[in-house]
Specification:
CATH class: Alpha Beta
Helix content: 40-55%
Number of helices: 10
Number of strands: 5
Number of domains: 1
Strand content: 5-15%
Structural class: alpha/beta
Order of helices and strands: HHEHEHHEHEHHHEH
Largest sheet: 5 strands, parallel
Shape: globular
Distance between the termini: 42 Å
């Protein structure tokens, strides 16, 4: 148990998410979309299949805010750390990029390589909220470095994103059309890396209302 606790601590799951488990993911509430049950089943099957039948592939949870993407991602990570003894790591995408940028400050003694070393070394990496950072060339290059390195090493990456998994120019030609339509994952990380994700991960689409707001309405409505 002590060794298991150490592995979980080393995964750096934020305090807010530490109670998230696969067994604790709720799909039976009134109005729950069927996609939530399917996502839950996919997550469970993924744990059962790891690592032989997953062959280095991960999961890409897509959907709007509050449908439980992070819950399932953390649930998978916890189960693999506890039951399979994997070296796991949770990373908030925006926080990771912020820390890397901050490492360029000469007064900061942590280097970019030191920050990325555990990201590259993790058997299973959860990259939460991919696409949340405003895109630019540096962001795209950094995302490419992380994803390509893990892809080449056949390491499992579990990703959550609030953006639909579509190519960045889908159905839009002019600047006005691009500005008017909903942004996609391709817009946020670039089409090249979005295509790489299709090779790295099984896409799990989740649809529904914000679960947290639904629960609040049920309790206080």
């Amino acid at each position: 148990m002590v060794r298991e606790d150490r592995r979980l601590a080393a995964a750096h799951i934020p305090e807010r998410y530490r109670h998230y488990t696969l067994d604790g993911y709720e799909t039976a509430f009134r109005g729950a979309d069927a996609s939530l049950g399917r996502a839950h089943l996919t997550a469970r099957k993924f744990v059962e299949a790891y690592p032989v039948d997953t062959a280095g592939k991960g999961l890409l949870f897509t959907g709007s805010i509050g449908v439980g993407k992070t819950h399932l991602a953390v649930g998978v990570l916890r189960r693999l750390v506890q039951e399979r003894g994997v070296k796991g790591l949770f990373c908030d995408y925006r926080e990771l990029l912020k820390n890397i940028q901050n490492s360029y400050n000469p007064q900061v003694h942590t280097t970019e390589l030191e920050l990325l070393k555990p990201v590259f070394a993790a058997d299973v990496l959860v990259l939460d909220d991919l696409g949340a950072q405003k895109p630019n060339e540096w962001v795209w290059d950094t995302v490419a470095l992380i994803l390509n390195t893990r892809y080449n090493d056949k390491q499992t990456t579990i990703i959550t994103t609030n953006y639909p998994d579509l190519a960045a120019g889908s159905g839009a030609q002019t600047e006005a059309e691009r500005a008017a339509r909903e942004q996609t994952l391709g817009d946020r990380i670039g089409d090249r890396m979005r295509s790489r994700l299709a090779e790295m991960c099984v896409r799990v689409e989740m649809t529904g209302e914000d679960f947290r707001q639904t629960v609040k309405r049920a309790r206080f409505g």
